[in-house]
Amino acid sequence: MKQLLHTASGSIVVVGLRNRAFTGRLDAGDVVELEPSPPALVPVAVKHSGTNDSLQRATDTKTKAHYVEGSEKAAASPQPGTQTVETVALDEIQAVAVHTSVGPGSDTAWYCAVARYDKTLTVYHVLNGKARIVSQHRTGKRASSLVFATVSATGATPATATTTSQSPNDLTVVIAGDLAGDATAFPLELDQNVTVDVENPPRRVLLGHTASMLTAVKVVPSHDAGTDEMTNWILTADRDEKIRISSFPATHDIQSFLLGHEAFVSDIDANDRECVSVGGDGTIRYWDISTGAELATLTCTESSAGRVTIPVKVSFLGKDQIAVIYDESTTLDILSVTRNVNVVTLTPLTQISVASQPLAIDSPDDHILLLLAAEPLYLQAFAVVRHEHRAYSLESQSWPFLNALRTSVAEYGPIQMHTAVLERDEYGRLKMDKLNETRTTNLPWNNVDRREKAKNRNKRQKKRRKQAQDDEYREGSDFQQIQLASEELS
After folding, report:
1. In the chain, is it the N or the C terminus that has fewer CB atoms within a 10 Å radius of its CB?
2. What is the pTM of this model?
3. Are the C-beta atoms of residues 200 and 138 closer than 8 Å to each other?
4. What is the pLDDT of residues 367-417, one digit of tens each?
């Protein structure tokens, strides 16, 4: 899973297009590119069966981006027994995040974080249209999700998420959820006067999901009805069908688990009271964060290919609407959230079809929805418009940043985006699906015939060992003496 789009208050946007990252304000025509340091582009040949691994180096200094003609088609339907080479750039972007403070200058200064395939995490400070690298870190495993959070120095409720109102002594960190199941906090900026220990860099592992990978991380403020106080929670979703809610920054204090998905959780979004999740079981689920109760479930329909349509990304659009996109589908759905006492209903509101596979969605405010897709538009903006007789529609919007982004990308030619959100193996099976692993119930050694053959084989081996021991005894001196004595007596 990748997090290629993130927004913050003030309509600040950061987006990842293969190995190029851009940031800016929606209402401004300035686009800031977040350059990697140092640049690297190393395609890796992946062996599937019966072939040798190889490592090919290809550096394109002219285009600056990752262009491989037909690579997605080759990876989509490889033939078993043949080598399928999937070109992977070491600087290909895995996750992005943006963070801004409330106060003077927040519209011209913000922080961005970019995690790449080579396990590097780079933090940028953007000021007056220019980006400066303030820190670089190495993650243990590749990051799948990023989020900024602030820890209060006074012990009061810490500010969180994409916007903060903080004192100078508060500590802001960037949290990376990785493929090893860990959520690790890294400092925003490193003291240039202090020598960093390469073997023990400044970081803190906040929590871990045992033997699983994290697919999404969110930090949200929450209202404690019992004490009437505001607290902070960190929500982490994983491949093992669960969502964990922990206190932040005291992550050892687990509040609850959101249990109900029957396959991997592909994405989550949350506000101060509720959470919405989507997963590989083809369901959209709505939760109460404080109690962990599941409030509503909506099952997606099957695709024309006979497979369950898998929702892969979800985003709140205000508190009464959510947006959903699906894997191997060009559909964008808007659902309404209706509350009646303790009953929540998810109802399809409107739907549109876009030109190519949507890769990410996010909402900078209650009225704008951003959608990331392939060329030539890349980033698009929509607004939900209500008409007469309770009819709704999605209308495309034009913003200066979107036009400037396309112009900036066009200078080096189109960037070939991925054609699917979820990765599949050479047989078309989802890599996220646990049925492809040895942890499932359909195991070879659980087969009745196989177990019976193994039982008989063990019996034969035991019989041969006993026969060998008897032969060795007969050849020994003690046995021969006993045999001679018996002959004399007879």
Report:
1. C
2. 0.77
3. no
4. 899 999 988 889 999 988 887 766 788 889 999 999 999 999 998 888 888
Predicted confidence (pLDDT) per residue in 90-119, tens digit? 889 999 999 987 555 556 789 999 999 999
Does the pLDDT at position 222 exceed 80? no
Domain identity same for 207 and 62: yes
Which residues, at least 6 apart from 65, have a Cβ–Cβ distance to it below 8 Å?
17, 18, 19, 20, 412, 413, 415
Q: What is the pLDDT of residue 192?
A: 57
Same domain, 466 and 394: no
Q: How many Å apart are CA 152 and CA 230, to the nearest integer?
A: 13
> In this predicted model, what pLDDT tens digit does every residue of 114-142 receive, in sequence order?
999 999 999 999 998 899 999 999 998 99
Q: Which domain holds residue 196?
A: 5-442
Name the domain boundary from 407, 425, 442. Answer: 442
* CA atoms of 402 and 395, how far apart (whole Å): 15
Picking from 278, 287, 392, 300, the residue whose alpha carbon sits closest to that of residue 344 is 287
- What is the C-alpha end-to-end distance of the chain, expressed in Å? 85
CA distances for 259 relative to 233, 242, 300, 324, 433, angstroms: 17, 5, 19, 20, 17
- Number of domains into which the chain is organized: 2
Both 279 and 412 in one domain: the answer is: yes
The C-alpha atoms of residue 236 and residue 258 are separated, in whole angstroms, by: 10
CA–CA dist 389, 216 (Å, integer): 38
- Is the CA virtual torsion 447, 265, 159, 189 positive or negative? positive
Q: Where does residue 432 rank: exposed (0-12), middle (13-18), buried (19+ CB within 10 A)?
A: buried
What is the token pair recorded at 419? 């054609």
Q: Is the peptide bond before 158 cis (omega within 30 degrees of 0)?
A: no
